[in-house]
Fold this sequence. Notes:
Blueprint: E1 7-12, E2 16-23, E3 26-32, E4 35-39, E5 45-47, H1 61-66
Antiparallel strand pairs: 1-4, 2-3, 4-5
Amino acid sequence: MENTKEVVLDGVGNPIELQSFPLKGKPVYLKLYRRRWKYKGENKHYINTYDFNPQGVKATKEFASFF
């Protein structure tokens, strides 16, 4: 394990704003931030990708399928 590299936080990416199912008749908006990571001493950063919403729709998958 001598060749392990240290991973450090490299900021956050652009937030994703989604609308979800209403609670008690009020709209619910979610704001998701994705963190960026990099290996210490390197410039290339890495970010996870998630499939929260269909392409071009600002609603969660479940809420979009309701329409």
